[in-house]
Amino acid sequence: MSARIIGHEDIVRELAALAASEEPPHALLFAGPDGTGRTALAIEYALRLNCERLNPPTTAGASLWGADSSLLPPPSSPGPCGECRPCRLILEGTHPDIIALGPGDTLCRPRDGESHAKHPDSRDIRICQVRGMIDLVARYPFEARHRVIVIDPADRFGHEAAHTVLKTLEEPPGHTVFCLVTAAPEALLETIVSRCRRIEVRPVPRARIEAGLVERGFDPDLAARAAETSRGRPGRAIEFARHPDMMGDRGRLLERCARVAAGPLRERFAYARDLADRWRSDRHAILAELDAWEAFWEERLRQGVGGGQGTVALAGCVEALRAITTARADLQANVMARPAFELMLLAFPRVTLALSPEEESAAYA
Ligand SMILES: [Zn+2]
Ligand SMILES: [Zn+2]
């Protein structure tokens, strides 16, 4: 199994089979919550497609021997080597054909003659970027067998951009694989989703994350705490293990969530202002606070599904979780923090019962 990925053994096996197949799919959709390992899995796919040891070059010389099956690698060959040139460049994040496309101005290509200000802080993936992408995919990759474009978050296209992406997926250019990453697959055009091989990336069991952190050399106590706090998200767990102060006082945060959710509107605005002030000086702490909010609403959602008393309508919880995802993406795209927090807090339903922090069960234990 891949040492680079914590958990997801079944998905890694699926990606290995897809990459080794006659015609690897040209579009994959990795759907799942932030921090579960979606991007790591997309990179794993890129490695499998491009590793020289998994895909020995078929030069004229080699093809002379092609008929001799004894020279082929065994069918159950291990994962990408991590050492050949493509593997190293991909793992370093410097491969010229492995491209991350997200909100900002990566690949931005203005129309001819159009004056067009750069937009590093934009919130969406814009049509100018999609134009740049189409230009790019029309050409051969610099050196890769398969160019891989990782689009994250793939739910951030404007109308025109989404339809242009759809056209590209309908008539896929050769040599290019699109990996779409999203926490909100329902926000994508149905027609885009149906063009992709869909991979559901689910939370990883706590014990598996803990073991993965220990394998990476983290102290066992710290690994246990980080795994617990991450609620099934290996990416988050690694961040927590690297910055233990991010974990903060979980119980205190959840109590605050309960207070704000039950409080009047003006309290929410005051809280949004406070978040925005602290965002400037301590991003880690605020991201941990957003995680606590996520845990808070996920717990309400579970209670709602269970039909417990004092539950919030399910739709309200789902809406709240979506608002957190949006706020996080906005903040990462450097939009103004205060309106982002206000929008998020206004989307939260009002909770009437204050709940004790003990109710936050270890859901992925
Ligand atoms: Zn390799
Ligand atoms: Zn642009």
Describe it.
This protein is α/β, with parallel strands linked by helices and 365 residues long. It has 3 domains: 9-58 and 76-200, P-loop containing nucleotide triphosphate hydrolases (Rossmann fold, 3-Layer(aba) Sandwich); 204-247; 249-359. 49% of the residues lie in helices and 7% in strands. It is built from 15 helices and 5 strands. It has helices spanning 9-20, 38-50, 60-64, 85-92, 127-137, 159-170, 190-193, 206-215, 220-230, 234-242, 250-262, 265-281, 283-306, 314-332, 337-347, and strands spanning 27-31, 98-101, 147-151, 176-182, 197-200. It has a 5-stranded parallel β-sheet with strand order 2-3-4-1-5, covered by helices on one side. Strand 2, helix 5 (127-137) and strand 3 (147-151) form a beta-alpha-beta unit. The longest helix has 24 residues, at 283-306. The radius of gyration is 22 Å and the shape is globular. Bound molecules: zinc ion (2 copies). One zinc ion (ZN) is lined by residues 51-53, 80-81, 83-84, 86-87.
